[in-house]
Amino acid sequence: MSDPAQTATEEHLPAPHPGLSAPEVAERVARGEVNDVPVRSSRSTAEIVRANVFTRFNAIIGVLFLIILVVGPIQDGLFGFVIVANTAIGIIQELRAKKTLDSLAVIGEARPTVRRDGAPCAIPTSGIVLDDVIELGPGDKCVVDGRVLEADGLEIDESLLTGEADPVLKRPGDPVMSGSFVVAGGGAFAAAKVGREAYAARLAEEASRFTLVHSELRTGISRILKYVTWMMIPTAIGLIFSQWILQDHDWREAVRRMVAGIVPMVPEGLVLLTSVAFAIGVIRLGRKQCLVQELPAIEGLARVDVVCLDKTGTLTEGGMDVSELRLLDGAASAGTAPGEGEAYVRQVLGALGKADPRPNASLQAIIDAYPSPDGPPWQCTDSLPFSSARKYSGAALRSPDGESATWLLGAPDVLLPAGDPALAHVEDLNAKGLRVLLLARATRGLDDPGVTDGVRPTGLVVLEQRLRPDAGATLRYFAEQDVSAKVISGDNAVSVGAVAAKLGLTGAKGPVDARRLPAEREAMGRALDEGAVFGRVTPQQKRDMVGALQHRGHTVAMTGDGVNDVLALKDADIGVSMGSGSEATRAVAQIVLLNNSFATLPSVVAEGRRVIGNITRVATLFLTKTVYSVLLAILVVCSQVPYPFLPRHLTLLSTLTIGVPAFFLALAPNKERAKPHFVRRVMRYAIPAGAIAGVATFAAYLLARHYYTGPGARDAETSAATLTLFLISLWVLAIIARPYTWWRIGLVLAMAAGFLVVLATPWLQHFFALKLVGETMPWAAVAIAAVAAAVLELAWRWVGRRFPA
Fold first, then answer.
1. Residues with Cβ < 8 Å from 670, sequence gap 6 or more?
2. Record keywords: Phosphoprotein included (predicted)?
């Protein structure tokens, strides 16, 4: 026997479509009519190998390595093996990061509900076939193109595709575009285009989600490498000609000296270490169930100075509990005898809960507290689903005794006019951090635009929100890191302020009703800078608020889990979604917290700061080497003297003062606040440090050329210059390693010990062609290096004062 309530509820809906049968699905799979667009959570293995192997500088180094293999000896070609090792490390780390990303992406992948053989079932997006019937509810993303079959107040936001801000009310027969999402109501649609034919898939073909754009770090490094190339080409040409002329009696020696001058100009490990740092960051965050959908998001969150938080699902847990039901004067007009008002209102609430097939968290709490009434069923003849824009839902109900009434359930300050006596009760409850919904009887139909006019308040449903236990500590972390937290919610401002105050948010005692915010961007930005808690914010306002903050120069992160957060998440510099959030929020967010823990955000910030701070450190090391290499080459060309080093000497120096220490420094903890202007901050130290190192080394080399004569003089000159350059480079490393910790001091000392081992071991002396002759010149080299180190210290401090970051 059919349920009359169910029958009445569906009077306004077409008969449910049973969906495809198993044979029909198999037939479409056989024809290839499957949604086979691959889910890209990272670059493919081939792309990773290609990106690490086929680089501009690997090509330069590779050619120079082949030249050395021809002229020999093999120890002058050690730099080639270093490049091979570095590239292998880069590939391995990125493949590890890819594995982590791919596994997390599968966990966070959307699983739409389709009807097969008359029954709903959740399947992977790739399992959808042509003509599949896909069910939709609030927050669901449309994963393929299609046409609406069923609609129950179905409102779809297509702004991410068309730019149209207002949700579109859909009726049976209307088109649905993949990439749009449901903001209210429910329904079902039939898949008309799947795979690469779908609208969103065609857009994705043009711009893959996982790109390395919008990263100041990577953009800055690209600019630096461009400058390096400009300097390197003319300098290298001059060096080639000068060494060829000077060494005309020994072309092999000329080639070796020429290669020695060119190789250190290339900051080959800088790009590698940046990739490795990002990759290891992804792996570390992956262990904490944090899916980084766009790699630069790690860096971006570290640069954020304002984080906008949606209260529900971020500061509070998703579920709520009904703590109280307060009857108002309107309950007396509900047609019940005194003392029966509360029982009647409970039945109305139960019937409202049953009328919504996809209840939100608030309605679910009401359903749990007031289940569908026993006895003769209530009938629902019309319904209006909840939407964040209007902030209420409704239903036309017929009670068992035949009385018909239209009921609204939503925000009291939206449903009631200002000054209504019931609002005084609401303010008192909101001040305690409680959420309040008003049950009111409407005098007009649900399809009337003025349905809220003249409503009769019947009762207040008081909901208690569950605070996230880790939210307070996370807010304190942001405060300590000088990151402003702005709580932006659609709930009552006083209630949101009370919740934020419980969590210790500074400025929570002055909540602002967003309906009173100025519409002009600059004025809104000033108001946002002054306040910390904003209530009654519409989805479009959230987007406007993000834009206003960005207009005032802020780097903005937005967190959220509901469909009303999608537009703001998309426009924010960094969007962060909860794993349990709607499909739409997960699709547009750069970071997804799969464990739904707001407390994971500090880990992401810390990881980003580690990457940025450490890459800034090691970039200074690499570019100091580039600067002194270019300067030495220029001085050699101008002075018409042989280049002071062989490739093996600079390989040794680079390994001990840059390669090995940079690897450790790039992966070390670093909580320093990320700062802008990466290129300027790196070059302001690298240029003076490189200039001092180049001039001091060349001075020691010229002094050695004057001091040593006879057979073996060239090796002695080179050894003295190598000692000078090593000591200066070691001092640069010692400066870069500050502030000191035990392991950083140990790292510097270990590199010094490595050089001493080479000088003290006969076969290593021979292998690297290093032998200090006499005592006067070696000590002179040490003295020159000591003076250069003192000048370095003074220059470092002067630059810090003259060109502050």
1. 609, 610, 613, 614
2. no
Q: How far apart are alpha carbons 800 and 587 in whole angstroms? A: 43
Q: Which of 321, 581, 447, 365 is nearest to 356 (CA)?
A: 365
Both tokens of 520, joined, read: 């002009």
Please tell me which residue in 140, 157, 310, 565 is annotated as part of the active site: 310
What is the pLDDT, as a whole number, of residue 211?
Answer: 37
648 touches 685 (CB < 8 A): no
Comparing C-alpha atoms, which of 197, 183, 115 is closest to residue 149?
Answer: 115
First to last CA, the chain: 77
User: Taking CA 55 as the corner, what is the angle to CA 53 and CA 60, rounded to the nearest 5 degrees?
Assistant: 105
pLDDT, position 497: 87
- DSSP strands (E only) in 65-143: 113-116, 119-122, 133-136
Dist. CA 479–CA 485, nearest whole Å: 8
718, two tokens: 């080179």
User: What's the chain's Rg over C-alpha atoms?
Assistant: 34
For residue 701, give the amino acid letter.
Y
Report, as ranges of residue numbers, the positions in the chain whose pLDDT lies below 70: 1-15, 37-43, 104-110, 159-166, 198-214, 246-250, 294-295, 318, 330-340, 373-375, 673-674, 805
Whether the bond between 688 and the residue before it is cis, its omega within 30 degrees of 0, is: no
* Residue 374, SS3 per DSSP: coil
β 591-593/290-292 pair status: antiparallel
Give the bridge partners for 487, in sequence order.
309, 533
β-strand partners of 512: 534
Q: Please state the three-class secondary structure of 13-69 as a single string.
A: CCCCCCCECHHHHHHHHHCCCECCCCCCCCCCHHHHHHHHHCCHHHHHHHHHHHHHH
Give the number of other Cβ atoms within 10 Å of residue 424's Cβ: 9
Residue 310 known to be catalytic: yes
**In the 3-class helix/strand/coil scheme, how is 709-745 assigned residue by residue?**
CCCCHHHHHHHHHHHHHHHHHHHHHHHHCCCCCHHHH
Contact 644, 697 (CB under 8 A): yes
Cβ neighbours of 418 (radius 10 Å): 6
**What's the one-letter identity of residue 782?**
V
SS3 329: helix
Cβ atoms of 238 and 633 within 8 Å: the answer is yes
User: Is-contact 649 260, C-beta < 8 A?
Assistant: yes
Quote the CA–CA distance of 770 and 763 in Å, as a whole number.
Answer: 10
Supply 721's token pair.
């210059």
Model pLDDT, residue 202: 54
Q: Which residues contact 124 (CB under 8 A, 6 or more apart)?
A: 109, 111
Please state the pTM of the whole predicted model: 0.69
Exposure string of 88-121, with b = 16+ CB inside 10 Å and e = fewer, is ebbbebbbebbebbeebbeebebebebbbeeeee
Query: What's residue 790's pLDDT?
Result: 95
User: What is the number of other CB atoms lying within 10 angstroms of the CB of residue 797?
Assistant: 10
248 is written with which tokens?
A: 């005309």
Query: Which uninterrupted H or E stretch holds 165?
Result: none
DSSP line for 490-518 = SS-HHHHHHHHHHTT-TTTTS-EEGGGS-
